[in-house]
Amino acid sequence: MELDQKVIDTVKKVLKKYHAKRVLVAVSGGVDSMVLLHVLSQLLPKDSFGVVNVDHDLRPESASEVAFVQDFCVQNDFQFFTTKWMNQPKDDIGMEAAARKFRYGFFKQIMQENDFDTLVTAHHANDLAENMLMKMIRSGNAYEVVSLKEQRPFANGQIVRPLLNFAKADITVLADIHDINHVQDQTNFDNITMRNRLRNNIFPELQKENGQLLHHFGFFEQQILALLKLAQEKFTEIESQMQLQEKPISGLLNPVLQLDRQQQTLFWGNFFTKLQLGISISNRQIDSIIEVVTNNDANASINLADSWQFIKSYDNFVIRQIKPQKTTELAITLGQSVKFLKRDFNLSTSESDFNLTTDFIPKTITLRTRRTGDKLLLSNGFHQKLSKRFINEKIPEYKRDDYLVLLFDNRIVWVEKIYNMSDYLKKGSKHYKIKLD
Ligand SMILES: Nc1ncnc2c1ncn2[C@@H]1O[C@H](COP(=O)(O)OP(=O)(O)OP(=O)(O)O)[C@@H](O)[C@H]1O
């Protein structure tokens, strides 16, 4: 079949397969997206597609590139949406990712406001192979290798990439045959980014070794996807045994332990990918997680990015973001109602309705959270470490900072739920009422 027809048939088939109805085409003005636009305009009626373009304003030529796409759309009477990126980061680090975030944010907005169900991009076989090799170089994680899929959910609908089976060379041939005008992104030739170095230096060399290289990347991706699908079935079964909770994200650890170490790596990688915490988890962090999950310590935690923590607590795990607590100590007076750790606390004297009894009247009363070295008075003048009491009561490590501790003259008289000095006094004379919501 002629290349021309093959591309048209493929794009048609892919759109049909994913039930694309109202299509938004992402057009940068480069050869790939201009060819895609050419094909789509032959397949779809004008009122069922629109063109979207983002001016990242990172190069002097960008305004003229937008103008090029805009003029093309006006001449052909295509719906056109564009915006200019204003809030670029000050330095270059993370610029590509920030630009992508902005771009996809705008795509999403246009889809939602104009009722498009499908965003179509011109990613092709070279993009797929470059992406896979970049993931190989950066992490080597099987669950990350596949990142450019033919279809994935996006905004109020989906992203579809119908050109993934075509090489850049094929697309360029089509542009030549049909005399399709396009802009040339000069930054493609800078070898500053890894992507460009792969594109310009590495891939041409690899392709000399085997002309079928791009197809082989395609096969590899398909096979990894199939394997991940099989693994996913097993993981879903395991997750159902873990009794997962959402707030905080937690569950039982035992079901994961039926997997061998490499399978656990895949499990946690897959699990974190699904959670979408907005942070990346390194191989070393996953290794540490497996380490603490499989060792004998009852409590342990692994710090992840952005104050997230993976916590092992006895048979359970918890993943939560630790927000620094502002106030950790509060001086209070009798009868005063205070808010502490988001809860209402009130201490008053009481003759009948009491739940705390002491044998002394305090000069100072303090409410706080636990501290190292905290001790609890037991009978006969003996003391017990508060940390020991937490362990005996099987209170998970990560919850211990939430427990309120009440002190009279620097002596602990009460710890929420787990200690009350009255229980250890032979007889007390002063009665107090603690109210806590
Ligand atoms: N500025 C832009 N405006 C509209 N569409 C764009 C723009 N840049 C890229 N696209 C769309 O995304 C496709 C891929 O572009 P490109 O390869 O430059 O992006 P990438 O950074 O590799 O990938 P991704 O789009 O997933 O971030 C293009 O073929 C086009 O469909």
Task: Tell me what you see in this structure.
This protein has 437 residues and is of the alpha+beta class. The N and C termini lie far apart (74 Å). The chain contains twelve helices and 21 strands. The longest helix has 29 residues, at 213-241. Helix 5 packs across helix 9 (213-241) and helix 10 packs across helix 11. Helix 2 (31-43) links the parallel strand 1 and strand 2. It folds into three domains: 3-218, 3-Layer(aba) Sandwich (Rossmann fold), CATH 3.40.50.620; 242-321, Uridine Diphospho-n-acetylenolpyruvylglucosamine Reductase, domain 3; 329-436, no CATH class. The chain has a six-stranded mixed beta sheet with strand order 3-2-1-4-6-5, sandwiched between helices. Strands 11-15-18-19-20 form a five-stranded antiparallel beta sheet, with no helix packed on it. It is 39% helix and 22% strand. Adenosine-5'-triphosphate (ATP) binds at residues 26-28, 32-33, 52-54, 56, 100, 103, 121-123, 127.
